[in-house]
Write a structure and sequence with these properties.
Elements: H1 5-23
Length: 26
């Protein structure tokens, strides 16, 4: 582990934004 909450939030935001680009959905 060793991942901070702040890093997790950044990763989640990154993945979600990428998913929107790939699928065109929210």
């Amino acid at each position: 582990d060793g991942v901070t909450v702040d890093e997790l939030l950044k990763i989640i935001a990154f993945v979600r934004s990428n998913s929107k680009d790939l699928t065109g959905n929210e």
